[in-house]
Specification:
Helix content: 25-40%
Number of strands: 10
Number of helices: 7
Structural class: alpha/beta
Largest sheet: 6 strands, mixed
Strand content: 15-25%
Oligomer: single chain
Order of helices and strands: HEHEEEEEHEHHEEEHH
Radius of gyration: 23 Å
């Protein structure tokens, strides 16, 4: 946390949104904790919206937790939490979230996906349909991954930006941090293994792409065409069969 705090304070007064990686804190950040108060003070000091990857308790279940992205306002208040919808298999990655909240702020409506969520198109689809104008992705990439693994994983972010014509901000722990424009072009990037910050100008967008409005149509259309063609061939073959039988 100390390192993230120092890096954030370097940006104090210069930015309106700060995104920390997934699992920046392997601790609970419920509002009644001292840790939450420290995060609240960071948001106040930087005068920015702050997204922090941490953990929150599952109600009535002391042993279970949500892999959480917590959003705080520049006044230090909690705006809300997003719970990871796709925990990594065979990894203690928390209880699965089941909703896709979008948070209304003065800089736009913010949608959050966490790391592995980015690999599933329905997550961003639901966020955008729920009104997200800016998309953020706190990410925890294993330090032990090879460079090609980090690059492969980061390659999903430009695809999601293109699908929805949204700015995407991806903050990674040891992988590639990126700011990506709505056309999938990487505007700023922090390479694998480096410690630091990237910053840039982003904008909010509210229009829906054809894909966001209708989803994947190519597959069902192709399926209908194939079935129609096979049906036509079957009818044609049957007609020849009856002609030959009559003759």
């Amino acid at each position: 946390m100390l390192e993230n705090r120092q890096l954030s304070e370097e940006l104090s007064g210069k930015v309106k949104l700060i995104v920390w990686p997934e699992y920046s804190l392997f601790e609970y950040v419920d509002p009644d904790t001292e840790l939450f108060q420290k995060l609240s003070q960071i948001a106040i000091d930087t005068q920015a919206y702050l997204i922090v990857g941490a953990q929150e308790k599952v109600a009535n279940s002391p042993k279970n937790f949500y892999n959480t992205a917590l959003l705080l306002s520049p006044t230090g208040e909690k705006i809300g939490s997003y719970y990871k919808n796709n925990p990594v298999q065979f990894f203690d990655d928390g209880t699965r979230g089941k909703s896709f909240p979008v948070f209304d702020t003065q800089i736009g409506k913010i949608g959050i996906a966490i790391c592995y969520d980015m690999d599933f198109s329905h997550v961003f689809l639901n966020l955008v349909r729920n009104g997200a104008e800016i998309l953020t992705v706190p990410t925890y990439d294993e330090m032990g991954w090879s460079e090609i693994q980090h690059l492969q994983h980061s390659a999903m972010a430009p695809a999601r930006a293109i699908e929805h014509r949204r700015w995407v901000v991806r903050a990674a722990s040891s992988g590639v941090s990126q700011i990506i424009n709505p056309y999938g072009e990487i505007q700023q990037s922090l390479d694998v293994g480096l410690t630091g910050t990237i910053s840039g100008k982003i904008d909010k967008r509210s229009s829906l792409t054809f894909y966001a409005s209708f989803g994947y149509l190519l597959t069902p259309i192709c399926l209908v065409l194939v079935i129609s063609y096979l049906g036509y061939e079957l009818v044609l073959d049957m007609s020849w069969f009856w002609i030959l039988k009559i003759l």
